[in-house]
Amino acid sequence: MQDTVKPSEPHVMTTYGRVPVALERGQGVRVWDVNGKEYLDALGGIAVNTLGHNHSKLVAALHDQMTKLIHTSNYYYVPGQEKLAALLVERSKMTNVFFCSTGLEANEAAIKISRKYGVDKGIEKPVIVVFDHAFHGRSIATMSATANPKVRNGFGPLLDGFLRVPANDFVALQEATEGNPNIVAVMMEPIQGEGGLHPMRAEFMKQVRELCDAKDWLFVVDEIQAGMGRTGKWFAHQWSGIVPDVMSLAKGLGSGVPVGAVVAGPKAAKVLQPGNHGTTFGGNPLAMRAGVETIAIMEEEGLLANATKVGDYLQAALNQALAGTPGFVEVRGQGLMIGVELNKPCGELITRGVQEAGLLFSVTADTVIRIVPPLILTEAEADEIVTKLVPLVKSFLAGQ
After folding, report:
1. How many CA atoms lie within 13 A of 235 on its CB side?
2. 233 is known as an active-site residue
């Protein structure tokens, strides 16, 4: 039996540099490939599988919904939309929700809201402030807001209307925007997931909130990766005590079923009117049921508290195990959104993790190992992540 499998894919576009393994089934925080080999999933579908794999309550709810309606279109009322919207509004202290299917779509909608907000005020060429290391998606608009040259290169000309400034530098933000009458919004991730697990400081987020209020700009927070309980609060910006005007969600919202959302507060909630925006698949009955059940199960099982407890435990264990290792930089993050930074590119560890340790994780920003497991992770499973990952890291840093 092979340890890994690399299926032939002659008809699939080569858009992914795949790890040589084909996964077949999962249970909890574990998955198995087509050869029956078991893996501990510390990636969670890239922060998507909130409830792990094959959660009995979620599966039962989705099966029930599939026997009723999967899709109808937004020509008609979808009762599940109001159910899920009410849950998100209650937890965010915002007011209204637009549903889509992906994080990219959510950020596209947030950008459109920001631009139309400015145009409605008479600004002909709206400008949105974005940050170094940001990642907001791979469409032309969201790619233009993204900082990574690897994502942007080869797709020009990109979209105008974005002003990039250093993260966590309020003076630089003030100086870059001073006297610019075209600024309409500031857009940020509270923790930059694809950019290397860099958090925005709470004080900086408060300063940005105050600046947006003073200038009548929208404050747009991209919670696609950090939201839905991953950091121990429903949304990562809540650690700073602020409320944004626009918030994008996806990933963990449907526990694997594609669900995206834009949540808006009073200043932005009525910007889009019929005909301004829409979607075919967004807000369908199956997706809405997935979101409603995900939130219900998270609350029943105390998964926000678990993300904080087990996340703190895992970070401390990784720090202790790697302390003093030449080439180890730091462990950072919040809750179960964790980055382990090394002093050199470590992308090869993804495949080595699969082949040598039976562990799924990813590498972001070239040098940061990303750990974003399901929020059901236990301390015993966190210990297992440390046991599997640390020898790989030490061997890699030693040049072995």
Report:
1. 28
2. no
